[in-house]
Amino acid sequence: EKPGLELAVVSVPSYACQRHTPLLHHNITLTDALSILADNAELGENEGRGVAFRRAAALLKSLPQEVRGAEQLRGLPCLGEHSLRVIKEVLEDGVSHEVETTTHSEQFKAMKALTGIFGVGAKTADRWFREGIHTPSDLQRSGHTLNRAQRAGLQYYDELNLPVTKSEAVAIGQIVESAVHAVLPGAEITLIGGFRRGKQTGHDVDFLITHPDEGREEGLMPKVVSWLEAQGFLLYQKTTGNSYLESKEGPARPASNMDRFERCFSIFRLSTDNEGRENQTGRENQTGRENQTGREIQTGREIQTGREIQTGREIQTGREIQTGREIQTGREIQTGREIQKGREIQTGDGPQTYSPTLTNTDPHTHSDSPHPLPQTLVVVGDHAQKVSWVLGHSQCSGPRSWRAVRVDLVVSPYSQFAFALLGWTGSKLFERELRRWAVHEKAMTLSSHALYDRKRTQYLRASSEEEIFAHLGLEYIPPCDRNA
Ligand code: DGT
Ligand code: MG
C-alpha cells in the first residue's frame, strides 16, 4: 500500500455546502489550474463547463492534505473526466498543457483585461475583442460610447484591479456606518462577501444593512447615498430599487432574478492618508484635503497617475512600492492566487507591466528613463459621452492621498436578514451549491430573501444562518469554511 492512499477512503460529501472549505488549503497548484479553465469557460459563456471546473477545484480545496498522485483521488466526487485529466497532467508534469495554452492565448488575456473593467461583462468584452480591442487602452482609443459604469471602470482601471485590503475594508466600514447612522439611527451594518469569510483582500467590499424595526429600512439607500455623495465619498454610484436588478447598465454580474433588494454599486474615494483617516469625516475630503495635495477633483476634472496609486499603496500598506515588480510582489504577498491571475492578464510577460495599462499607450513612455515614471492620465469632461484621455507628465500633480475602491451596499428587511446574510457571504460556488442542495435534496427553494418548502407549500422562517442550515438538514458551516 502506498502512503497517501488514505485520502481515497476519506469519505467526502459531494455538495460543497456539506463540507468545510477553509481559505487556506493544500492543493493550490491544482486549484489554480482548474480556476483558469473555469474562468475561460465562463468568459466563453459556457457556464456548465465553468461550474464543473469550479466544483472540482472546490473538492480539492476541502481535502485535508496535499494530493500527490491521481490514485489518491479514487472514489472522490465532483471530479469529471476533464478535470481529472488536468489534475493528472499537473501532478505528473507540473503544468497542464491546456492551462498553459489558455493563459497565453490572446483571447483569454484580452477577455480578462476587458472584463476587468468595472461595468464590462463577457458579452461586451467578446464583441470588443472581435473588433480588435484587446486592452483598456485599445478601448479608450476606439472612441466607443461607454455607459457611466464603464467610463468609471476605465478611469479607475488600475486601482480597481489592485486588491482591497482588510484595513481598507474596515475604513470603508466606518464611513458606511457614519452614513447609515446619520440617516437611520439604530440600523445595523454587517461586512459580508469575502471579508466575512476571512479573506485578507478582496476585489470589492460588501455590506448588508438592516434595521430591527421592519419597514424602517425602506427607502434607506437613496438617503445613505446622498449623505455619502454630499461628503465627497463617492466617485460613482448606481442604486437599484427594491425590484429586479437592471443588469444593462450595472456591473458585470449575473443578477439572480430572485434578488430584489435595494442595492448600490459604487466606487468609493478612500483616503489613504493614515493621519487623515482617523478623523475622516468626509467633509474634509471635499475641501481641505484637496488643497493639501494641490490636485484632485477640480471642476469635474480628474487626474490620475500610476505614481499616485503607488504612493497611495505605499502609505496604506507601509510597503516600499516603487516599480512594477515590487507592486506585483506586494500584491502577491497580500493575496496569493488572485495576483497570479492578475499577472497573467496585466503583464503578459514581465514585471514592468503593472505600470498602468492605460499609460502604456505611448511608445515613448519607457524610452526616456531607465526608471520610467508612469504618465499622468487626465480625464476630461466627467459628463462627456465619450471619455477622452489626455496624456501628460506626472510632475504636474503631487502624490495623491486617496484611492478608488469598489463597494457594494445591500439593504434587507429585518425578517429576511438571515437569508440575505447567508446569500451574500459567498463564496459564489458555496451559494450555488446551497441552492442546488435545497432543490434536489430537499425540494426547497432558497434565495437571499427566503426559503420555500415545496412539499409543505410554505415559507420557512429563520432569524439566523444556523436556523437556515437546520431547515436544510445541513451541518452548520461557519463563514470561514465557506471558501469553496
Ligand atoms: P471578492 O469580492 O472578489 O473578494 O469575493 P466575494 O466572495 O466577496 O465576491 P463578491 O463581492 O462578488 O460577492 C459576494 C457574495 O455576494 C457572493 O458570494 C455572492 C453574492 N452576490 C453577489 N452578487 C449578487 C447578486 O447579484 N445577487 C445575489 N443574490 N447574490 C450576489
Ligand atoms: Mg466582495
Can you characterise this structure?
Its EC number is 2.7.7.7. Residues 24-483 form the DNA-directed DNA polymerase X domain. Residues 272-373 are annotated as: Disordered. The protein is an alpha+beta fold. It folds into three domains: 6-102, DNA polymerase, domain 1, CATH 1.10.150; 164-407, Beta Polymerase, domain 2; 421-481, Beta Polymerase, domain 3 (2-Layer Sandwich). It is built from 22 helices and 13 strands. The protein has helices at residues 6-9, 28-43, 47-61, 81-93, 97-104, 106-115, 122-130, 136-142, 148-155, 157-160, 166-183, 193-196, 220-230, 274-278, 283-286, 288-293, 306-317, 324-335, 337-347, 417-425, 428-442, 465-471, and strands at 164-165, 188-192, 201-202, 205-210, 234-240, 262-271, 302-305, 376-380, 388-392, 402-411, 444-446, 451-453, 458-459. Strands 2-4-10-6-5 form a five-stranded mixed β-sheet, with helices on both faces. A three-stranded antiparallel β-sheet has the order 7-8-9. The chain is globular. Mean pLDDT is 78; it is low at 244-257 and 281-395.
Give keywords:
484 residues, alpha+beta, DNA polymerase, domain 1, Beta Polymerase, domain 2, Beta Polymerase, domain 3, 3 domains, 22 helices, 13 strands, globular, binds 2'-deoxyguanosine-5'-triphosphate, binds magnesium ion
Write a brief caption for the model.
The protein contains 22 helices and 13 strands. It is of the alpha+beta class.
